[in-house]
Structures are given as C-alpha cells and as structure tokens.
Amino acid sequence: MPLFEEGLVSLSQKLHSKEIKASDLVDEAFARIHEVDGDVKAFLTLNEEAARSEAKALDENGTAEEAIISGMPIGIKDNMVTKGLKTTCASHILENYDPLYDATVVDKVKAQKAITIGKLNMDEFAMGSSTETSSFAITKNPWDLERVPGGSSGGSAAAVAAGEVLFALGTDTGGSIRQPSAFCGVVGMKPTYGRVSRYGLVAFASSLDQAGPITRTVEDNAYLLETIAGLDRHDSTSADVPVPHYAAALTGDIKGLRVAVPKEYLGAGIDESVKEKIRAAIKQLESLGAVVDEVSLPHSKYAVPAYYIIASSEASANLARFDGVRYGVRAETNDLIDMYKKSRSEGFGDEVKRRIMLGTFALSSGYYDAYYKKAQQVRTLIKQDFEKVFQNHDIIVGPTTPTPAFKVGENIDDPLTMYANDLLTIPVNLAGIPAISLPCGLADGLPVGLQMIGRPFGEETLYRAAHAYEQTAGFTLTPAKGAMNK
Amino acid sequence: MSRINEEQVKYVANLARLSFTDQEIKTFTTQLDDIIGFAEQLNELDTQGVEPTTHVLDMYNVMREDVVEPSLPREEALKNAPVQEDGQVKVPLIMEAD
Known about the structure:
The structure holds 2 protein chains of 2 kinds. By secondary structure, chain A is α/β, with parallel strands linked by helices. Chain A has helices spanning 8-16, 22-40, 48-61, 104-111, 154-161, 178-184, 218-228, 272-287, 303-318, 336-347, 350-363, 368-390, 415-420, 426-431, 459-473, and strands spanning 43-46, 73-77, 115-120, 167-172, 187-190, 210-215, 258-262, 291-295, 395-399, 435-443, 446-454. Chain A starts with 7 loop residues before the first helix and ends in a 13-residue tail after the last helix. In chain B, 33% of the residues lie in helices and 4% in strands. Chain B is built from 3 helices and 2 strands. Chain B has helices at residues 6-15, 22-39, 74-77; strands spanning 84-85, 88-89. The chains are: A alpha/beta, B mainly alpha. At the A-B interface, α9, α10, α11, α12 and α13 of A face α1 and α2 of B.
C-alpha cells in the first residue's frame, strides 16, 4: 500500500520511531509524479532538488516530535508566493516571477518542516471552475482523464487524489477548494473568512478569498488547518481568534447535532445521481444521532449573479497592478499607456480579461449603484439567510456541486454554464462562513462531494460531523490504479 | 435587447488598460451582454434600505505601532523588474521633453 494512504498520524508516528524516513515519503511523491503526472498534469513547477535535500537533513537531524506535519510532502497552489520558487498564478503575465518572500501559509508549513514538493496548476488567477483557463496546462481528473479535476484549485485536488503528495494547500473564492475536492474525491476545507492569513496569496477578490487544506482524510485536514490558521500582523483582515486543536474535536459523537438541509440545495438543477448520494449521507448522519430538518435559504438563486459582480469588481482593482512595470512580463513599446495595454492584453487569458471587463464596467460611473451596490445589498440578504438558519441549527448539509466532474471542453466556451456550476459553493464565500467538502460515494464511477456549512469560526463542529460521517461511511476513495495511465 | 454595445466595450477596455481586436470586441460585447443580463435578475429583489455588505468581519481600522522595520534591499526589490537602470525601474517616456 502506498504510504500516503495511511494518513498523517500513522505516518508521523512511523517517522518519529524511524520505521520510515522522510526520504521515503519524498521518494514516493516523486516516483508517483514521474509515473502519472505526464497525464494528470497537476504540477507546474517541481521543487525536487530542494525537497530531497530537506528530507535528507530531517533524516540526519531528526524531526521535531511536536510538529506532526514534519517531513510530510505537501503541494502548494501556484497563487501562493514561495521564496525562490517560481510562482505564476498559471498566467503568462507572471511566467517569470521569482517571489522575494513566502506567503504566511507557506511560511507556517515550512516552519513545521513539511516538505514542498512543487507548485500546483490552477485556473489563471484562480478564475475558473475546471483548471482549463490555466495558461500552461490542463489538469486532468485522476478518476477519468477525459474529465476536469474542477477548479480553480484543480492541481491541488488532483495531486492529492493521484497520490502525488500527502496533502496540498488551495484557495477558495467561490468554491475553488470545495468543488475540485468534490470532483476528485478528497477532503477540502474553506475556512471562515479571516481564519487564515491572506498575506502572500495573489489577490483575486479580497473580501472573499481564503486559503485552506486539501487532504485525503478529515483528520489530516484538521491538522493542516491548525498549522496554517491564526492572526497575522501582515494581514489586517486575519482574525484575532484563538486557533483550536481541531483534531480534538474528532470525537465521533454527533448525537443531538442539529442539521439543516436547505430545500434549494436539493432542488432543480441538481443531478439525480448526486441527490441520491446526498440523501443517503443525510440518513447516515441521522442514524448517528443527528436531528435533521428541512430549511429554506430563499436568496440562494441570487448568489451566482451577485458573486460575479462582486468578485469581478474586486478582481478588476486587484489585477490593475499587473502592468509590466515592476514585475511580470512587459511588452516593449515607446509609449507608457500602450505598454500597459499591450503587456496586459498579451499576458492575460480570455477568462481573466472577461472578469476585468465585467468588474470595470460594474464599477464605472453610472453603473455602480445598479450593479455593484445592488450586488452588495443582495450579499447582505444571503448572509442573513444563513444567520436565520444558524439560530436553530449547528450545520447545514447538501451537495458541493450539482453534478460530478464534467468533461474537458464541455463548458469552457460558455461562461454562464461554467459559472452556474458554482451555485452551491458561492453563497458560503459571500457570507464569509466555513464549509467542508468530503466524499460521499461514487455516481457512475465519479466521486460525489458532501458539503457541510458551519457558523463563523465553527470549523470544529464541521470537522466533528465530517469525521463521524467519514468513519462510518465505510469507504475510502482512491482512483483505480490504471485510471491515470492512458 | 442589448444592454451593452461595442462602443461601451471599447470605453471600458480603455479604462481597464486592455486592447482588443475588432473580432474580440464583438465576442466580448456578446458575452458581457449575456453576463450583465444574467446579473439583472438581482433586480427582482427589493433591496431598498438594505445595508450593503462590503466585508463580512466586524472589524475596523486595525492599528499598529509606527516603527521602522527592515525592508527589501534595492537589488532584491528590483530583481523582477523587466527593465531597470541605475537602481531604478525604467519605463517609456511619460512626459515630452522640451
């Protein structure tokens, strides 16, 4: 059995008792990458030399007992800056960018001596739901190479599912951790806004972006979130709220847990095969002692349009910095304004341009109130929907995505169909609350994601419920061995 | 009914510092029109008197002590600059010389 299927706690114990070496773990990562990544294409940049020497140093000097992730191979999404390791955001405009510092999340996993295996593919600037908008490669779903891994953290989810790393970091602005986790059959957590520092993440939509862990198990996820969470003086929106020992919440006991199932999340537009798995999962939670009620989140259907106005508006401002002056690729001309336009037009791909255009339009004089302010008011209504449900319930449960993974090329030419795919994940970002996606079975051979949504800073409750489900569901999801080789 | 025309798309492109071919302007006009049309379903909701949410956390003006701390050395800060001269970033002429 591959080491990565054992889970973090077991691997860490074996590492400390010297039953295995950090080099064995790093060897497994690169052996697997060389075996399958030619087809899966999860990685944009490998950190092989440094990773091997870090593992060797750990084997010689010993790992720190208290740092459970010490020696563990991790993949980093390519929108998190890594000092001395190229960071492209999957965009031509940053194809030569060599960061001068580490993002706080990277700094934290490095401080615990996790070993960076490489940088993971994504939709360009995290704008997309399939990893097809990457300027460099299309990542494939390890369960079926004809299908997308989801996005924008598609490389992160695919690398974990394919066994190329033990775990990975992703970011989630409208579902970019949870949707690919659902499509690839792994566990992904979008923490509460402010739970994890955004310092050193290439900004997409600053009021929505959060970083989080993608792992094989709920327990691994809890440990990785504990490592990366917390107040950061470099991010004034990081929250001054103590970080719990999340793994301690994994008691297996959810008796009396009040679970809300929004009728909008099992309504029109959701595949019957997905609904069937979600209903079975809800029954499972009930059999464990949870009390399940149907509720309504009446403004759900307005979340997607509100999100695309808000996220694109914020993106149009955030991406103004890519102008060819201080970093990135510059198009040479003799005129400054032409240089901006040419650098940006050559450097950005179509989806990024579409969102910059939409955002610039929504913020422009005469349209601001009609679109941007209106969308922010609707955001308030969506947030209030959740607050009402959480007065009487501990978590909200439903599917993560309306369908299992779709085929490469199926939606890429139709922006609105692609956007609609995010209808179940976007409301969470607008409300700033945490949500986890975990596998709840297969539909026609493809993983289905169960989404659990919690109160602000309610990650412990989510982990407890997700873990209780996972432990009793009686399956582990690993793509068939042959699936990743053509 | 079209909500946005090619002239508006060209105007917004200039604000966003992007340039497009005529064919791209046509494609973007259609796509933006579709997306804006989709967004207009927000008008079904009466939001009069609803406070806009700009930010989800109850947090204002996070202050810190104003102390000088080490920053990047100049050569580091210039490492990614595409064109540089005499320790500075070089850009095309901004103002005409007399």
